[in-house]
Amino acid sequence: MTDVKDSPQPGVSPPSASTGGASVRLEGLVRTYGKVRALDGLTLSIEPGEFIAFLGPSGCGKTTALRVLAGFERPDSGRVLVDGKDVSNVNAQKRDMGMVFQSYSLFPNMSVLDNVAFGLRMRRQSGDQRRTKAGELLELVGLGDQAVKYPHQLSGGQQQRVALARALAIEPRVLLLDEPLSALDAKVRAELRDQIRSLQQRLEITTVFVTHDQEEALSMADRVCVMSSGHIEQVASPDTLYARPTTAFVAQFVGISSRVPVESDGKEVVIFGQRCLVRSGGTTVSGPADALLRPEDVAVEVDPQGDGFITHKSFFGATTRLVVQVGEIPVRVDVRSDAGADMALGLHVRPSIIARDVLVASRTAIEIPSED
Amino acid sequence: MVTVGESYFFENEEVGPGETPVGRRRRKKFRVWRLVVLVIAALFFLAPLYAGFKFALQNDSGKFSFWAFTTLPSEQGFSGAFFLSMRLALFTALVELILMVPTAIFVHLRLPKFRPVMDFVTILPIVVPPIVLIVGVLGSAPLFLKESPYLLSIFYVVLAMPFVYRSLDAGLSAIDLRTLVEASRSLGGSWIRTLWSVIMPNLRAALLSATALTLALVFGEYTMANLDGWTTMPVWIAQFQQSDAHVTLAAAMALLVGTWLLLSLIVALDRSQSRKRRKVGTQ
User: Fold this and answer.
1) Is residue A97 less than 8 Å (CB to CB) from chain B?
2) Strand A85-86 versus strand A77-82 pairing type
3) 0.80 exceeded by pTM
4) ipTM for the assembly
5) How far, in Å, CA of A84 to CA of A97, rounded?
């Protein structure tokens, strides 16, 4: 496959696209569409050179936030600061932000080289300068030999890499990525994901990445900003977000959780007859609540007298995921595949909690809109 | 009675090896009907053309001759009428594009919900008879406009609007306009640069067809030009018919062939340009 063959050249040094990155601050952004509040007082600071991902379901406001940052949308109130300077009233043309779009956005009438050089042409650089720099950037994304081709002659992955080179060519203060991988097939997506991350680290460019795919967000970003209904649920590093979600929404949306009804006194809960500590950091819940269990928080032991039995089994290579029915509650459990191989459907097991502590949330239903 | 729909249905019907004799007869019957419809349509379009060319290629004694065509350029009033029509056609096409291209882009980008309204508004010139338009405007237009043939161009802009808007609308719907515009803007492109370097090249086919339709409309419009008192090509043809029918037919046929050649040339240029771009690669 061409996308594999054309991976970036290790010997190619990055062109002078590195800017050191700008700091970004979004302050109290509000944007409404009719009765819908797409952004509801969003405030966030992004460090220079940081890679931050906006993660959330459809309609959570992540794309609106990116578009406000890019200058394509004006907020109803609030400010956008880049390196401390208010750019809320600066139009997109003058913001110096490179953007890669979800749909293929290359100019169909221009060759690959001319696409990459377009931003430089707008900055009135000479023809030689433009060609040299565009060539360097194409080498950087591993497409140096495709310069004379037209967008329709490239695969989807190659087109997005050209779009990335085009966005980087203008030495943007901030790189904005609007779900750039969502139209690609799984293999190309994984390759391009690694490529974007390594380029961002080499160029140290402040990057905002919008996605609804948690795997993308967790594997690429320095920090992930989980959004819901126009506001931020939690901003944290991927490992903190996964291990220490502060809200039930984040626990449900990031990773997989099973909800087990418990009685909480705010400090301890009893799950499967076992006393467990309540994880600190989130909202304290007392009384009837739900414990949110990650598949790796639970272990199972084969026991004919056990109060759970296996209803589903999925093989994931090193691990196997079981769904264990405990009374009315289905609980997902990850086990090593060699142990899982011996566990047949219908087998009775005894579940136990192996995590230090568990996240407890109120029983309010959490609606996560589907991406369809 | 056989309709086109029925014929299509039966043509696409899958008939297995166990097809009945009735089914086979039906299929044959519809194939024959299809041929009959095709022949009738061809006759309808080609017979007048054949008759026109035959008459234009005859001299007064009924013998084959190019006389009517060779004498045409020197006939009184012909060149004046031809160049007037040409001037009006080019001016109309220019004004039409200057007005309609930004309008169509604006509607697509900023007022997509307004598109059904635009569809309705732009069809109005077809509903209003040209004679109503010209009589109304002639009664109220300022004198300097009444004295200029370019008053006609204003009418022609209105008349051509339904075709031009639809052509542009289809062209804009075929590209991801919003993304292209935003990509250009984020790279530092001004609105003018975005329009010129990004949108227009990707609308080439739509622009060409809009221009061709406008030229064809102006070269064929008679009522308004006649009532406004200007001798454009159609008016000249109608007037000269009383002097020499052979020459008039030659003019009409030349106009037809000329328009056809122009359209073919535009299409050929468009194709060769696309091919060249694909081969060469850089601008």
Assistant:
1) yes
2) antiparallel
3) no
4) 0.80
5) 16
